[in-house]
Amino acid sequence: MRAEATQRVALVFSLLDANGNGVLEAVDFSLMSDRVIAAAPLSGHAAQDAMRAAFDRYWTTLLTELDANGDGEISFEEYTACVLSPERFEATIATFAEALAALGDPDGDGFVERPLFVDLMTAIGFARPNIDALFDAFRPTADDRVPVRTWVEGIKDYYAPDKSGIPGDHLVSGAGAGSVA
Question: Helix H segments across 17-111?
Answer without folding.
Answer: 26-38, 45-66, 76-83, 86-103
